[in-house]
Amino acid sequence: MPIPGTPSRAELVDHLVKTRIAGDVATPRENNLSHYRQLANGNRNYWFGLEFGDRWTDEQDVLAVMAERVGVNDDAEFRYGQDTIDPELTVDGLERMAARLRKAAEDRQRVLLATGHPGGLLDVHRATAAALRSAGCEIVVIPEGLQTEEGYVWQLADVAVLEHGASLWHTHSGEPMKAILTALEREGRPLPDLVVADHGWAGYAGQHGVDSVGYADSNDPALFLAESEGTLQVTVPLDDHVKSPRHYDPMTAYLLAQAGLEPRP
């Protein structure tokens, strides 16, 4: 640490495992299964702004998708202990996301970036926003004065976040994105062509019909189910809060390079 420049795919896979962004991650198996069960039981806190109806009421079906798209252990009898994220699937997801970012840059699209996990992913989104802006994209400026029951919806370094008690707030809710999109429509402004986000910010945007790509952890199944159904374009599996946010820098460099974007300070 850190890897200078842009890593190769093999170097990035090795880095993801060493920093536990993927590989043997910190999230335990019992926490993963608990969240899959909560989603299947209809707990909307785990739906991330999406609408699943009665399509995912069997937690074993949720586990099957997570095994396929994230690389968690597919054995339903494995209940406790270390679970995993397949680093190859992480890089595959980054490459799919990069293809969508490349299209956004080529078409000079309007892009909105947001995070419900600012402690880990804020700078990933900030760097992506800076590169897209440099490539000619319009980074959507959100309306002022927005709030939800959890707090205020702000924009820092071109990234929408939730602020509560003078702190940036971790949230799974889709309500902050709902507040933004509703306000844009109310003001007669166009919606984004693309949302790059995580948690409920990505989920609600996709549910609202906006092209959406995002990041999600092994205990957050909603976005992976949405990708499997086509509601989200891409969901990248990773641990979304590792020891240092600087550990994500090589991943961000790889993403931008694959998208043909130049990193900006």
The count of β-strands is: 11
Q: Which series of helices and strands comes N to C?
A: HEHHEHEHEEEEEHEHEHEH
Q: Helicity level, as a percent range?
A: 40-55%
Q: Characterize the main sheet.
A: 9 strands, mixed
Query: What percent strand?
Result: 15-25%
Rg (CA only): 17 Å
Number of helices, counting only DSSP H or I runs of 4 residues or more: 9
> Which descriptor suits the 3D outline?
globular
Protein name: Phosphatase
Pfam families: Phosphatase
InterPro entries: Phosphatase_SCO2771 (IPR031423)
Give the key terms.
265 residues; alpha/beta; two-stranded antiparallel ribbon; Phosphatase; Phosphatase_SCO2771
Please tell me about this protein's structure.
- The chain is of the alpha/beta class.
- The protein has 9 helices and 11 strands.
- It has helices at 9-18, 29-40, 59-69, 87-106, 118-134, 175-186, 199-207, 222-229, 249-258; strands at residues 23-28, 82-85, 110-114, 138-139, 146-147, 152-156, 159-164, 167-169, 194-198, 212-216, 234-237.
- Strands 3, 4, 5, 6, 7, 8, 9, 10 and 11 form a 9-stranded mixed beta sheet that branches.
- α5 links the parallel β3 and β4 (138-139).
- α2 (29-40) crosses α3 and α4 (87-106) packs across α9 (249-258).
- The longest helix is centred in the middle third of the chain and has 20 residues, at 87-106.
- The mean pLDDT is 96.
